[in-house]
Amino acid sequence: MKFNVSGTDYTHLRKREIIRDIIIFVLALGILALLVLEIRKPFPVRMIFQSQIQEVRSNVHEEYVKIYYPLYYFSRQLAPMFSIVGDDRNVYRRLISDFFPKHSFIVEADIKVKDKIYIIEKSVNGANYRVTEGTFDEDKLGSIYKKLSSAPKGRISVSGYFIEAGNLFIRLVYVANEDTLFSYVVKFDVPKLDKDDGDIDMYAYVINNDSVISFPVTDLAEPVIKNYLDVIGTVVKVSTDPRRMNRVDYNGKYYWVYKDFFSIDGATNEIGVVVSEENLFNDIRPPIIIILILFIIIVLLLAVFLAFRYMRILDTYKNANDIKALLERGENTHLEFKATLRYDTVNEKVNKDLEAVIIKSIAAFNNTEGGRLIIGIKNCGEIIGLESDYSTLKNPNRDFFELHLRTLVETNYGNAFSSSGIRVYFIVEDDKEICNINIRRGREPLYTRVINKQGATEEKFYIRVGNSSREIIHASEISSYVKKHFK
Known about the structure:
Layout: H1 15-40, H2 45-48, H3 50-78, H4 81-85, H5 89-99, E1 106-113, E2 116-122, E3 129-135, H6 138-148, E4 156-164, E5 167-175, E6 180-187, E7 202-208, E8 211-216, H7 222-235, E9 245-250, E10 253-264, E11 267-276, H8 277-320, H9 323-329, E12 335-338, E13 343-344, E14 349-350, H10 352-366, E15 371-375, H11 387-390, H12 398-413, H13 415-420, E16 422-429, E17 432-439, E18 448-451, E19 457-465, E20 468-472, H14 475-485
Parallel strand pairs: 12-15
Antiparallel strand pairs: 1-2, 1-6, 2-3, 4-5, 5-6, 7-8, 7-11, 9-10, 10-11, 13-14, 15-17, 16-17, 18-19, 19-20
Helix pairs in contact: 1-8
């Protein structure tokens, strides 16, 4: 229903409009509460960092595959040759000198064959590798190699790692048999995330053969790395659901952990991404605070708008039935007075033509901007009430009056319009009852059936023009008006 100070119906504020406003305001408050909670606990962490998490996972998996398979096939092919060629060192040297320069990620390697050990080291310039042969010292190296030899046979396994100058190095082991063991130190070069991804101290980890590798995936200072690596070993052991962000408590501090799995050569490896909640807050809280402030302003503006809207409506409700004020204002596009519904005061009898006038006025209001039709007041402003109309009814009271009125409306425009298009209520003014009909602006045009002079039924289209209802005669003009007005 439209509300207009010039006389449109103020009194009928539809329930669904009130419900709509309540829903809008409650939703606004809900979003506001959501933003407040977001500042306290960043629950959509995974959504915010989904792309970074997938990038880290992809980078780690790609780097691991790049290292794993060359070392696996080299170790698998070289191991049997020690028993075949014996002490022919040139064979070993040739194979090593051919393989290692092609895989620059290898920093050094040890090959233990029975009581022999071959140490392969990268030259200073990184272009060549030097092979040193020696006797295996059981006293110095026995305990170390005993631990290394516990790794699964016939597979590359992680046995440890260290970070030096910001670079990650891991030790990989291949146990061929009881007499032959390969140990490699390789540079695990996982690309760091772009600086545009923020100042998050994000770390990744890989668990292979019960060995945990943890390393930063963002550019951070060395002290932060050391502090973080002190706790990451415990954080990753906490049971968390895979493929989702989990909040983990460690010594009173919270961390967000995302874990997944990838398989290589039949072995399942766990991969995870870890970020501290405190650092996460520092990165995502400023934009959320800005959004929160903007949204608070929007909610306040919405509250002010609704307050003024309902203050105006309540004020209008108070004055809606001020008949004296309506009489002073007089008839206009949104207001019309009718003396009676069906009683002809001149001829003192029922006049069906008067009912047709009422029906025509209702259609005109519907087809324009809506408005009020008040029955029981003459055009000159004299209040005569409904007693003369009541006298024509079976039961002379307002209930039968409204029943007759709605029957007329339903006969001409249907039950749906009678139910939702008009609102009927009664007002007592100067001890006389008058009937107020509020007609809302229609969603669809109403055509009024009338009987012409030839006795045939035809449809006419009425609109409000000033303080009267006028017919649009030409079909083209009706079509043009309907297209513009009923969109």
